[in-house]
Amino acid sequence: MIGGWFTTPAGVGPTGGDVAPGSTGAPIEVIVGVFVLLMAAKIGEEVFRRLRQPAVVGELVGGFVVGPSALGLVVPGEAILVFAEIGVVILLFQVGLEVRLDDLLRVGRVAVVTALAAMFLPIVTGVAVGLAMGEEVGAAAFIGLALAATSIGITSRVLAEAGVLDRRFARIVLAAAVVDDILALVAIGVVSAFATGTEIDRAVVLGISAVGIVLLGLAAARRARGLKREVFTWPLFADTPLVPSFLLMLGLALVSAVVGLAALIGAFIAGLIVAETEASDELEHEIRPLGLIFTPFFFALTGTALDLGALVEPSVLVLAVALIVLGVATKALGGYLGARSTGHWAGIAVGAGMVPRGEVGIVVANLGLAAGLLSTEVFGAVLLAVVATTMAAPYLLAWAVPRAVAEEAAARSG
Amino acid sequence: MIGGWFTTPAGVGPTGGDVAPGSTGAPIEVIVGVFVLLMAAKIGEEVFRRLRQPAVVGELVGGFVVGPSALGLVVPGEAILVFAEIGVVILLFQVGLEVRLDDLLRVGRVAVVTALAAMFLPIVTGVAVGLAMGEEVGAAAFIGLALAATSIGITSRVLAEAGVLDRRFARIVLAAAVVDDILALVAIGVVSAFATGTEIDRAVVLGISAVGIVLLGLAAARRARGLKREVFTWPLFADTPLVPSFLLMLGLALVSAVVGLAALIGAFIAGLIVAETEASDELEHEIRPLGLIFTPFFFALTGTALDLGALVEPSVLVLAVALIVLGVATKALGGYLGARSTGHWAGIAVGAGMVPRGEVGIVVANLGLAAGLLSTEVFGAVLLAVVATTMAAPYLLAWAVPRAVAEEAAARSG
């Protein structure tokens, strides 16, 4: 930045710092960070594709390489966090666009059973391990919860890239993820109230709001069936459905976040709603460039969180390995048990799809830390487990999905 | 945000603060700000369109209404600044995509004369006013410079919306803006060196680098003529030209910013380069949704900077009015004198197109403030003048452009 020439003590724009003349006042280093992270994600993807490895793992590795614990070229700040969040919101909106509401409701019962099983097993296991390690009940509950949360982002991407979102097992994963997120919300509320001694009725209120929001969204999707394109294009600013739909997506994502659900649940529901209207195809086309630019930030950001240096600490290493192994095993088994009525390989694919630990795991660990129940090692271990399970999912899915597809085809023709 | 439940002392993500569970750690208020600002821009646009007023002024007003000096719903932070900067970068990239290099070079000489005239007049006037006000030469020079910088963002948008980017006067404005930015860079360097007593040779080096970068870019555009689509789509991650082109755009914008030019100059050149390739049409289509989402942030952000409250201070009011009147008059006259060889109304349209003061004006004012040469009133007045001239431009253009178009049509048929 031109040798500090334009570094003015008064600063330009709310953030101060170096700015280019003629710019909006955005610190130039931040835009460099945005550029480097996107570039790293795409180079990582390219290398992984050429090695016939999952593209999305390449984005994660690209993020790791330029991130704080490796080269240190990019230190994610507010702008990159927002890009990543909007990226995963757009991803789930796109997934919602490809799913028909009726297909989703048809797997509703299996999805609820799957979510319950895939939540119950990790919690019980986590609590048991915690108690066996001599922890108190509260701490053990946090360990269980950290194991229980599912993040659907990477699975959505892998299923979408494989072109199997219309399969029954894919719909089960999606529906179960919604149910899972509601359950996690309530569970976090209960455990948190228990741990900190605050009112438990808040957890109940939040749980009810969350269920209410989701049901309202699904009802809206049903009402949206066959709506004309003009519903989106009546404003003079909207030549096409893009901007109104984008606002709907972001708005529902925020409502979802405010009641305590993941923002991506709201975005998924927004996608379901728009999918039922006549604007669906046009919008699928229009949202694609936005997804191509924003979504890599989500995966690259996850990569930047990976801190291999923490592994030199034996206690963190042991805990991380335990979290990863137990997390993968219990979630996969829970998913399998819940969904195997659909088929053996379908059950395995569902289990594999639910393996990625969410950022919810990090939030839970943070809560436990704040309540003085968990050690700082646990936080480091949870971070490692989140990234590791996210990286494992594409490989597990690459193994299970083709078999599940074949099984479903055989069942149809048989 | 759920009553502080998820507010953990440890914080989640680099920025800490409130985060939604299952989020990337982006503070939820920031995403609310992004949502509110985009919504406000679009509502402002809608109202203005229905009143048959320029859409882009509606976006500015929308930003003003929710900004810190009115409702205070949005306080622009890093994320919004980055959205705005990328927004104007995409806008100029789109403009570059619509312009042919040869057409631009054909108006080269007129553009240089125009840029010189449109820079010389405001500087001389500003210096004269400053000296008449009893200021020292250094301070007077800063006032002149603050009057001299042109921001091409809003003019580009108005010309693009009017569908006249292929007209001769439009190309003169674009080419003159590039020359203008180089001249401003050198002038700021010289005045800054003069004011702070640092080495003047840096200004020369920067000026040469800037010219070099622009010439290199134009040479690259010439070499890019007729390049196959595969130049962009050979990476496995690129099914379409979008992502590689986006990286090229952002990369050149950053190079441009690093040598001290406005980032949008680099983006414009990137657009010129891609425009010459066979990927041009496809890319124009793909970049559109990104422009629709990002670009409103640039104009809405400018609106948030408008502080009508500052006008109660009589000295700021007088200075702002003086800056606005002199800024509009001298720039329009300079543009007219430079371009009138093309036609009477074409000259007026060029003059009108060069009226918006840039954020460069703010940077100059900041430098003067830091050097102890200018008062805080000047800073407030410059901010007002930047927004006011930006708001005036669409009206001036709405008056001049149709007449210039008619004049050009008459000249052709005559």
How would you describe what is shown here?
2 copies of one chain form a homodimer. With 414 residues, chain A is mainly α. The first copy, chain A, has one domain: Na+/H+ antiporter like fold (Up-down Bundle). Helices cover 74% and strands 0% of the residues of chain A. Chain A contains 17 helices and no strands. Chain A has helices spanning 28-50, 55-66, 78-98, 101-106, 108-132, 137-148, 153-162, 168-196, 201-223, 230-233, 242-258, 263-275, 280-304, 314-339, 344-353, 359-370, 376-413. In chain A, helix 1 packs across helix 2 (55-66) and helix 3 runs parallel beside helix 12 (263-275). Chain A is globular. Mean pLDDT of chain A is 85; it is low at 1-23.
Shape label of chain A: globular
Return the CATH architecture of chain A. Up-down Bundle
Number of helices of chain A: 17
First and last CA, distance of chain A: 67 Å
Number of strands of chain A: 0
Summarize the amount of helix of chain A as a percent range.
over 70%
Structural class based on helices, strands and sheet pairing of chain A: mainly alpha
Stretches of chain A where pLDDT is under 50 for at least 5 consecutive residues are 1-23
Number of spatially distinct domains of chain A = 1
Give helix and strand order of chain A, one letter per element, not per position.
Answer: HHHHHHHHHHHHHHHHH
Most extensive interface, chain pair and sizes = A-B, 99 and 98 residues
Q: What characterizes the major β-sheet of chain A?
A: none
Q: Say what the CATH topology of chain A is.
A: Na+/H+ antiporter like fold
Work out the strand percent of chain A. Answer: under 5%
Q: Output the CATH class name of chain A.
A: Mainly Alpha
Assembly state here?
Answer: homodimer
Nearest-integer average pLDDT of chain A: 85
Radius of gyration of chain A over alpha carbons? 22 Å
